[in-house]
UniProtKB/TrEMBL annotation:
GO terms for molecular function: acyltransferase activity. Gene3D superfamilies: Hexapeptide repeat proteins (2.160.10.10). Keywords: Acyltransferase, Transferase. SUPFAM superfamilies: Trimeric LpxA-like enzymes. This is Putative acyltransferase. It comes from the Archaea. Pfam families: Bactofilin. The lineage of its organism: Archaea, Methanobacteriati, Methanobacteriota, Stenosarchaea group, Methanomicrobia. The keyword Acyltransferase applies. InterPro entries: BacA/B (IPR007607), Trimer_LpxA-like_sf (IPR011004).
């Protein structure tokens, strides 16, 4: 199976329900998929963890399932894997590697503080991670044909919350920059319900579901939406339209083209919407 050349299907960013950024670790109960050439200045904690080539993770990786780290990635911390691990060519791990299952390891891998593997060790270059991710997504999202992958992910990253499957992985697109100050992705970003995040979010468009807390601002080049009961401890800025739903609380300013604001939402700062503002009333 050959993946699409431009990797359109991994241009969006999605954080599953109940994702938390705590103590310099991005934590989820779901799988984690990191695109190529990302820089993430904290650790990752998830089920299966997949990191594409030329990415740098400045923290520990803890996987309760498998871990796949592609060619020429650098991990500035430990890697702890409860099941099997697959390390591509040129991977550097500044800490130690602990694998409870089997280990497939490619050429020129460097592990500074040694490794421990309970199962079989095979010295070979594993399947390219980009091909593995296509196969994985086709399976986990219940897709019959690879060609349908882009349209399914478009629904996940879109505004219709009901279309997102509960097992949606945490996906970070290629070229993303994540640190304690900024969470920057190139295109769409969908944040699930019940999340707790630190940092200013910058993306093409931003959708935040209900009962999430963000300690930072939202900056969208296109549209942005903040769902019911969500709190944003910062500004909401957009070059497009912004929707703020019932019981949402913005603790800063709102600046956008047009604003739709529920009457039970709260904005502590200044509202600037030169294209107009619409007040939504409580439904009975």
């Amino acid at each position: 199976m050959e993946p699409t050349g431009d990797h359109d299907w991994i241009k969006g960013c999605t954080l599953p329900d109940n994702t938390e950024l705590q103590e310099r670790t991005l934590k989820t109960d779901q799988d984690i998929v990191i695109g190529e050439r990302c820089r993430i200045d904290y650790g990752l904690f998830g089920n299966d963890v997949v990191v594409c080539e030329f990415s740098k993770i400045n923290g520990n990786i803890v996987a309760s399932g498998d871990a796949r780290i592609d060619n020429w990635c650098e991990i500035n911390g430990d890697v702890v894997v409860e099941e099997d691990a697959y390390l591509g060519e040129g991977v550097k791990i500044q800490g130690k590697l602990v694998v409870r299952g089997d280990l497939d390891i490619g050429d020129n891998v460097q592990i500074e503080r040694g490794f421990e593997a309970k199962g079989w060790i095979s010295i070979r270059n594993p399947m390219p991670v980009i091909i593995y991710i296509v196969m994985y997504l086709v399976a986990v999202l219940g897709i019959e044909k690879e060609e349908d992958l882009s349209s399914v992910l478009e629904k996940i990253f879109g505004d219709d919350d009901e279309t997102a499957p509960t097992a949606t992985p945490l996906m970070i697109p290629g070229g993303a920059v994540l640190n304690m100050q900024t969470f920057s992705v190139p295109e769409k970003m969908a944040v699930g319900a019940g999340c707790r995040l630190h940092g200013n979010i910058r993306a093409g468009s931003i959708s935040v579901r209900e009962e999430t807390t963000i300690f930072g601002s939202l900056h969208a080049r296109e549209d942005a939406s903040v769902a019911r009961g969500t709190a944003v401890h910062g500004d909401v800025q957009s070059d497009g339209d912004v929707t703020i739903e019932q019981e949402a609380h913005i603790l800063g300013n709102v600046s956008c083209k047009r604003l739709t604001l529920h009457e039970d939402a709260r904005v502590d700062g200044v509202i600037r919407a030169p294209g107009g503002m619409k007040i939504e009333r409580r439904t009975t």
